[in-house]
Design brief:
Blueprint lengths: L4 E4 L6 H10 L3 E4 L9 H6 L2 E4 L6 H6 L5 E4 L9 H6 L3 E3 L6 H16 L2 H9 L18 E5 L3 H10 L5 E5 L5 H6 L3 E2 L3 H7 L2 E4 L13 H6 L5 E4 L8 H9 L5 E4 L19 E3 L8 H19 L12
Parallel strand pairs: 1-2, 1-3, 3-4, 4-5, 6-7, 6-9, 7-8, 9-10, 10-11, 11-12
Helix pairs in contact: 1-12, 5-7
Bound molecules: nicotinamide-adenine-dinucleotide (NAD).
The site of nicotinamide-adenine-dinucleotide has 34 residues, from helix 5 and helix 7.
Length: about 325
């Protein structure tokens, strides 16, 4: 019988640490050298476990997989995995919530501060030694502003915690959390998204992608925002209507946005958002810290080992 094997679907940073942990336990580990939009079906069919970050898995490929026992998400959002098919076929789907919440929250704060303090423009100006242009680029303080957090789970709460020293007013829209929890973080729960959008100077998204949250920020919602508002999206690209966001940013109807996540990933070079001056950008990297990769590699390897040793894995998504 061939030894148990695991396919790691993307060339993740620091992946050697996970491979070593698996190989030390007698498991063959193969790492894809390239990013595939869809995990290749032939690989899914041949392995006992998959570690997947941002590639998608089709329901058809899971239907055909005879050996597969666990799909371990290298992250939180599981909208790229056919959960129901996996559950029906007895394949565990697990994620690693919690480990990267602080990374995304710190990144969110960095993105907000970078926009308000115009770090990118000042950096460019300095490289060209444009000393006389200094009066044209003034910062704005975060202190005293109103920040709207949409989605008050692990990440949203960490953002509220990190905002404390800035003495911001924090509004929260999340119909699924109790007022008392929101108040514990010194924030105010609002029942209506419109109010949060109208009142906030900074709006930051921390919801999962679901049928309810897809395009929850569309043209109408963007137009409700203050003209000098800042929008941060580290949740999922499709939570915002990208076309509407482009139009609104281009027309200067809001001040700026930080876009970390994209409607289509990998983002294509001809996405017009890439050319907007008031869009600060990253490539789905809000959680990519050294600490996160080290802890996540260990978690994934240990969770797969649990399943291959006949134990139940941790963080099965349908049990939460
Ligand atoms: P979580 O499950 O702890 O929290 C999500 C919150 O969203 C919950 O409190 C839930 O009640 C709320 N919510 C659900 N539907 C809502 C709706 N319609 N309106 C308002 N609130 C709603 O998840 P988390 O760990 O905080 O992560 C949030 C999301 O961030 C993930 O699902 C993932 O898509 C994204 N994420 C991105 C990165 C990155 O690198 N950019 C990393 C980690 C997570």
């Amino acid at each position: 019988m061939s030894p148990p094997s695991v396919y790691i679907t993307e060339p993740l940073p620091m992946v050697e640490e996970m491979v070593k942990l698996l190989e030390d336990a007698g498991i063959e580990a193969e790492v894809s050298e390239v990013f595939h939009e869809y995990v290749p079906e032939d690989r899914i069919m041949e392995v006992d476990g998959i570690v997947v970050a941002d590639s998608r898995i089709t329901p058809e490929s899971v239907e055909k997989a005879r050996r597969l026992r666990i799909v371990q998400k290298f992250g939180v959002g599981v909208d790229t995995i056919p959960i129901e098919v996996c559950r029906r076929r007895g394949v565990y789907v697990c994620n690693i919530p919690g480990i990267n919440s602080l990374d995304v929250a710190e990144f969110t704060l960095a993105a907000i501060l970078s926009i308000l303090h115009r770090i990118r423009e000042r950096d460019l100006m300095a490289r060209e030694a444009r000393w006389s242009d200094r009066p044209k680029v003034l910062s704005e303080r975060l202190t005293g502003k109103t920040v709207g957090i949409i989605g008050f789970g692990r990440i949203g709460r960490q953002v509220a915690r990190l905002l404390k020293p800035f003495e911001t007013r924090v509004l929260v829209y999340d119909p699924y959390v109790a007022v008392s929890l929101v108040e514990e973080y010194g924030a105010e729960k609002v029942e209506d998204l419109t109010r949060l959008l109208k009142d906030s100077d900074v709006v930051t998204l921390h919801v999962p992608l679901t049928s309810e949250t897809r395009h929850m920020i569309g043209r109408r919602e963007l137009r409700l925002m203050k003209p000098d508002a800042v929008l941060i999206n580290t949740s999922r690209g499709a939570v915002i209507d990208e076309e509407a966001l482009y139009d609104v940013l281009r027309a200067g109807r809001i001040r700026a946005a930080h876009i970390d996540v994209w409607a289509k990933e990998p983002v294509s070079e001809d996405n017009p958002l890439l050319r907007l001056e008031n869009a600060q950008l990253s490539l789905h990297q809000a959680s990519w810290s050294v600490e996160f990769f080290r802890e996540a590699a260990r978690f994934c390897a240990e969770n797969i080992l649990r399943v291959l040793r006949g134990l139940k894995p941790l963080n099965v998504v349908w049990e939460k």
